[in-house]
Design a protein that fits this description.
The chain is an all-alpha fold. It has 5 helices and no strands.
C-alpha cells in the first residue's frame, strides 16, 4: 500500500498544473490508462444517456458500433458483461 501512495503522489506532482482533460490525454498517451476499461465506460455511459433521452437501446448500440468502427456483437457483449 505504501508504494501505491508514493506512485500516486508522484503522478499528482507531475500532472497537478494541468486541466483534467489534458491530464487524462497525457495519461492515455503514456499508456497509464486501461484503454479497454475506458472504452467500456464510454459505451455504457453513452447508451445509458441516450436511452434516458428516449432513444431505443438497440438502435443506440447499432449507432455506437458504427461510430466506433466495431462490431455490434462487441457492443452487445460489453453491455451484457461478456467482455
Amino acid at each position: 500500500m505504501q508504494n501505491r501512495q508514493k506512485f500516486v503522489t508522484q503522478l499528482f506532482r507531475k500532472l497537478k498544473q494541468q486541466c483534467p482533460e489534458s491530464v487524462l490525454l497525457q495519461m492515455w498517451n503514456e499508456g497509464l490508462l486501461d484503454k479497454k476499461a475506458v472504452e467500456k465506460l464510454y459505451i455504457i455511459s453513452e447508451i445509458e444517456r441516450r436511452v434516458r433521452n428516449g432513444e431505443i437501446k438497440t438502435k443506440v448500440m447499432e449507432h455506437l458500433s458504427n461510430e466506433l468502427s466495431c462490431s455490434y456483437e462487441k457492443i452487445r457483449g460489453i453491455v451484457y458483461h461478456k467482455f
